[in-house]
C-alpha cells in the first residue's frame, strides 16, 4: 500500500506560514493533497478509493519532518558506535526525516566511492541520508577533495567537521571552489592551536576542576577569519561564497556572524540543542542539570559554555541570527566514554531529543512561537542548504513535495529515557531531562518509518 491519509491534525508548514487544520493525502512518496476543508469528506472518499491507510492525527501537529544538518552516522569504520541503519532509526524516532552525514568516518568520506557508500540504500536507512564529504583529502587540511565530482555524486556541501580548515589559503580556495558549484563550506570553527589539551570551556569552572579550557576566541577568531575571506573573494573573484558555521557556541562568534549578515555576506550558522540546554557548571556536578562531577556525557566540542554564552546563543536564536538547529549527533560506545574526563572522546547523541529539548527551551521557556521553532528545524535547513535546488523537495507540507512528515503532540510532556534509545550508543546528557512535544508518526518517502 502506498497511500496514507493523515487525518484530523493541525498542519504547520513554516515554508508557507500555514497553520490550520487540514487532512494530508500522501501517495507514492509525494504529498498529493492538503485539504483545509476537513469537513467536506472529499479527501475521505478519495482515500477510500485509493485504499489509503488512515492515520488518526487528532490533537497532533502535522509538520515537515526535521532536517538535521549535522549528524555523525559513524559508518563506514566505526560501526560499534552507530550504523547508518541504527542512526536513522534514532532519527525517525525523533521526527527527523533527513540527516546530513558528516565525513569523519574511517576512512574519511573524501571520495565519490565513499560518498556513494554513505548514500546507498543498501545501508538500510530509515531516513533520507544526504552527505557533506570532506573539504580536504583525509580532512588533513591540505589538498582539496574533488569538489566537482563530489557535487555531481550528491554532496550538499563540504566540511572537515571535527577539525577546522585552518590554513587561510586552503580555506579561501575551498570557499572559492564550493562557490563555483553553489555549495557551502561548513566550518568547524576552532583554532586548534588554542585548544591543545583542553577538554572543556575556559573559565572559573575549568579552574575549579583543574581542567584545561578552550577559550571562546578559539571559536570566534576562526569565524572572523572566514568572514574576512568571504569579503576577499567577493572583491577579487566576484563570486558569492557561502560559509556555514557549525555548532556556534559563543557570543563573540555570533556577533561576527550577525555583523557579516548585516553587510550582506552569505553566512549561515547552526546552534545545537545542548548548547542552549546546559552550561559548563554541569561538569562540576549539578543536580539541576542532571549531571555528576566529571560526567563525560557532558563533554563535547565546542564545549558547554558559561551561562552568559548560553544566554547569548538563545538570544541569537530568538533574533534570527541563528539560521538552523542541528544536533551534532555524535555516538560513542560506553567503554569509550567511561574513562577519565580528559581522555573521553567529544560528542553526544541528539537525534531523539532535538525536538523535545528545542520546544521546551525555545517555545515554553522563551515564548518563541511553535511555527518559528519548527522553521529552524525544517524549512530553514531546506532553504539554507539549497536542498530543493539540489533535487530534494523536503521541509514543506505542500502538494507535490516529498512526503517526509512528522506528526507530534506539541503539548505532551515527557522524560527522555536513554534505555529506550534506537541509537547504538547512549552517550547523552539528556537522559532524565524533561521534553516537550512527542512524536507519534514519522513518514519518510511516504512510508511510516516510526509509530509511537
Ligand atoms: Zn564539529
TrEMBL record:
Zinc keyword on record: yes
**Belongs to which family?**
Belongs to the metallo-dependent hydrolases superfamily. DHOase family. Class I DHOase subfamily.
Return the InterPro entries for the record.
DHOase (IPR004722), DHOase/Allantoinase_Hydrolase (IPR050138), DHOase_cat (IPR024403), Dihydroorotase_CS (IPR002195), Metal-dep_hydrolase_composite (IPR011059), Metal_Hydrolase (IPR032466)
The terms describing its cellular component in GO are:
cytoplasm
GO terms in the biological process aspect are:
'de novo' UMP biosynthetic process; purine nucleobase catabolic process
Residues annotated for Zn(2+) 1 binding in this entry:
70, 72, 161, 328
Cite the Dihydroorotase catalytic domain residue spans from the record: 61-231
Stated EC number for the protein is 3.5.2.3
Pathway annotation from the record: Pyrimidine metabolism; UMP biosynthesis via de novo pathway; (S)-dihydroorotate from bicarbonate: step 3/3
Its name, as the record gives it, is: Dihydroorotase
Q: What role does this protein play? A: Catalyzes the reversible cyclization of carbamoyl aspartate to dihydroorotate.
Q: Which cofactor does it need?
A: Zn(2+)
Going by the UniProt record, its keywords in alphabetical order are:
Hydrolase, Metal-binding, Pyrimidine biosynthesis, Zinc
| Cofactor remark | Binds 2 Zn(2+) ions per subunit.
Supply the enzyme class, top level. hydrolase
Q: Which residues does the record give as Zn(2+) 2 binding sites?
A: 161, 188, 247
- Binding-site list for substrate: 72-74, 104, 301, 332
- Give the residues annotated as active site: 328
Give the reactions, separated by semicolons, that this protein catalyses: (S)-dihydroorotate + H2O = N-carbamoyl-L-aspartate + H(+)
Output one GO MF annotation.
allantoinase activity
Amino acid at each position: 500500500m502506498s497511500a496514507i491519509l493523515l487525518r484530523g491534525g493541525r498542519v504547520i508548514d513554516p515554508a508557507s506560514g500555514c497553520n490550520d487544520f487540514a487532512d494530508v493525502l500522501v501517495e507514492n512518496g509525494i504529498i498529493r493533497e492538503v485539504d483545509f476543508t476537513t469537513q467536506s469528506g472529499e479527501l475521505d472518499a478519495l482515500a477510500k478509493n485509493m485504499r489509503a491507510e488512515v492515520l488518526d492525527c487528532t490533537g497532533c501537529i502535522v509538520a515537515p519532518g526535521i532536517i538535521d544538518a549535522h549528524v555523525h552516522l559513524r559508518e563506514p569504520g566505526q560501526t560499534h558506535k552507530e550504523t547508518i541503519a541504527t542512526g536513522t532509526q534514532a532519527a525517525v524516532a525523533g521526527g527527523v526525516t533527513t540527516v546530513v552525514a558528516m565525513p569523519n568516518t574511517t576512512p574519511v568520506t573524501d571520495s565519490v566511492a565513499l560518498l556513494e557508500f554513505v548514500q546507498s540504500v543498501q545501508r538500510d536507512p530509515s531516513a533520507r541520508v544526504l552527505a557533506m564529504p570532506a573539504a580536504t583529502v583525509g580532512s588533513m587540511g591540505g589538498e582539496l577533495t574533488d569538489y566537482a565530482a563530489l557535487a555531481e555524486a550528491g554532496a550538499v556541501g563540504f566540511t572537515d567537521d571535527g577539525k577546522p580548515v585552518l590554513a587561510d589559503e586552503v580555506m579561501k580556495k575551498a570557499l572559492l571552489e564550493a562557490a563555483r558549484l553553489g555549495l557551502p563550506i561548513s566550518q568547524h570553527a576552532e583554532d586548534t592551536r588554542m585548544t591543545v589539551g583542553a577538554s572543556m570551556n575556559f573559565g572559573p569552572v575549568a579552574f575549579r576542576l583543574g581542567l584545561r579550557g578552550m577559550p571562546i576566541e578559539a571559536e570566534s577568531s576562526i569565524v572572523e577569519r572566514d568572514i574576512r575571506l568571504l569579503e576577499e573573494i567577493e572583491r577579487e573573484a566576484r563570486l558569492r561564497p557561502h560559509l556555514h558555521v557549525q555548532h556556534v557556541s559563543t557570543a563573540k562568534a555570533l556577533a561576527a556572524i550577525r555583523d557579516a549578515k548585516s553587510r550582506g555576506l552569505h553566512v549561515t550558522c547552526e546552534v545545537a540543542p545542548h548548547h542552549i540546554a546546559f552550561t559548563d557548571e554541569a561538569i562540576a556536578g549539578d543536580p539541576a542539570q542532571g549531571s555528576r562531577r566529571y560526567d563525560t556525557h557532558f563533554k563535547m566540542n565546542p564545549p558547554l559554555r558559561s551561562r552568559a554564552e548560553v544566554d547569548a546563543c538563545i538570544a541569537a536564536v530568538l533574533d534570527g541570527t541563528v539560521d538552523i538547529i542541528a544536533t551534532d549527533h555524535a555516538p560513542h560506545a560506553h567503554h569509550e566514554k567511561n574513562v577519565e574526563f580528559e581522555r573521553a572522546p567529544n560528542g553526544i547523541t541528539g537525534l531523539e531529543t532535538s525536538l523535545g529539548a528545542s520546544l521546551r527551551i525555545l517555545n515554553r521557556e522563551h515564548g518563541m512561537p511553535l511555527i518559528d521553532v519548527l522553521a529552524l528545524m525544517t524549512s530553514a535547513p531546506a532553504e539554507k542548504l539549497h536542498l530543493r535546488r539540489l533535487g530534494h523537495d523536503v521541509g514543506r507540507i505542500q502538494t507535490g513535495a516529498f512526503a517526509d512528515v512528522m506528526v507530534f503532540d506539541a503539548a505532551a510532556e515527557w522524560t527522555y529515557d536513554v534505555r529506550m534509545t534506537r541509537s547504538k550508543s547512549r552517550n547523552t546528557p539528556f537522559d532524565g531531562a524533561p521534553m516537550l512535544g512527542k512524536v507519534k508518526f514519522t513518514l519518510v518517502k511516504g512510508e511510516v518509518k516510526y509509530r509511537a
